[in-house]
Amino acid sequence: MILLSPAWTSLLYLAASVCFILALRGLSSPRSARRGNLIGALGAVIAVVTVFLSVRLANIPWILAAIAVGSLVAAPVARRVKMTQMPQLVALFNGVGGGAAALVAFLELDHAPDPWLRLAIVFTLLVGAVSFAGSAVTFAKLQELITTRPILFPGLPVLMAAVLVAAVAAAAVVMATGSTALAVALLVLGLAAGTLLVLPVGGADVPIVISLLNAFTGLAVAASGVVLGNVLLVVAGTLVGASGTILTRAMAAAMGRSVAGILFGAFRGGSTAGSTVVSERPVRSSSPEDVAVLLGYAQHVIIVPGYGLAVAQGQHTAAELAQALEARGITVEFAIHPVAGRMPGHMNVLLAEANVPYESLKEMGEINGEFKTADVALVVGANDVVNPAAKSSPGSPIYGMPILEVAAARQVVFLKRSMRPGFAGIENELLYEPQTSLLFGDAKESLAKVLGAVKAL
Amino acid sequence: MDGMSLLTVTVLAVFVGFEVVSKVSSTLHTPLMSGANAIHGIILVGAIIVAGQAAEPWLLALALLAVVLATANLVGGFVVTDRMLHMFGRKGPARAGRKGEQP
After folding, report:
1. Residue A269 has what pLDDT?
2. DSSP states along A364-402
3. Is residue B5 part of a domain?
4. Superfamily designation of domain A288-456
5. ipTM given for this complex
6. Which domain holds residue B57?
7. Per-chain mean pLDDT for chain A
8. Do the chains contact at B14 and A238, CB–CB below 8 Å?
């Protein structure tokens, strides 16, 4: 049904594009973030209504049914997912978006007479398929369906190179002839390339890869916009591709790593694989009661939550402990490293979910000066982000990564599962310092025991 | 739209994309990634267009699959981002409650 003239269609698409720009801008500041997201959703609604009113469409009942199915599957999952599992859900949504872009490009192949148009098609096919398969692998890693350690096998670089060469060859032929069979082959090669790209990435680097694949999907959507001659898709896809690239670089910078190093480090062997060797050096281990006394009679406590806290889902217990300490008149702050949790900013979401007030969450730059006035720094399930090796030993893989300077605190307490080194696989000298004590166990259980002991003081 | 205008729009969009997120704090990296992820779900528009043109059943089936996937990306993306940001929004009342508990 065509109710809208081309001019009105363009105007409405422009309105939707402006909504998306305002959405990204809104999401960049805490006060306007939620409104920004709603503006983005409004833009999407405008765009979808516009396409129904401006293009002659067959199969409308089928299309509406498919939209209903997609919404009915995705909305409840998005609403119910645990916040700790949210990164893998984002990966999953990203992957299906890439898959949709690849399918759209594939179906347009018959309608593309021009080789340049077919160039946009092969680009969308390949990048969409890489994003789909790569996201599926990151999902499997985050959900721990497969190991979070880098998966490497001999010949991986050769296989990857072969897949890429074959993909470029297939792309060239599809561009020249428009062959459907080779387009299918290109899709398969894209899936293989996406899988091989992400398999060697270590668990700690997976969030950066999600962000990168997010930018990839954006580019695929932009290219599909070129294929369909749809300006909205070009603008929205390009926006996501550009902002996703910036975001990926910002995340990598926060971890002191380069994007190329993350993707290709494993191929060269110098990856985040690290060692799992348990050290034999003596440490001072401590009981929950000792930790409770340290905390309960302090004046200023800084809690450093890390990946281990997120995995143990101990954020609520950590928040309760902070409340119990505050009730005793103690100043409690949370020091959030930019990459704490499973994704940058993930820890903020988890703690916000547990009702920790926003003012208590301090970013690294803000809190680092305060450690020297802190009586106790309580490090819960974090390791690499407080490892002084990042500052002192130039040979270390994490050298150059900004860290939280917990060593400046009068006492340091680590809640750790074991003496196993962190993701980067480097020993933490701080563990052996005289002001450091360790409480071994699951982060959530340890926190619960300490909380009980604090309440009993 | 002709190729040159499309190129102009694309280049401008690249700069807008760089500019709007350049000053984001690391606190909001995750919601921003999730929000951007929802935005590329707009591929739904493309999926609807190809589904509306599909003449053969197997083409329609593939196009409808694309519609389902794109809708999941779009709807799921905005819902999960909203939930994340809702967590941030709850801070005001939560804090007041905690202050009230103190003697």
Report:
1. 45
2. HHHHGGGGGG-SEEEEES--GGG-THHHH-TTSTTTT--
3. no
4. TPP-binding domain (3.40.50.1220)
5. 0.87
6. 33-85
7. 88
8. yes
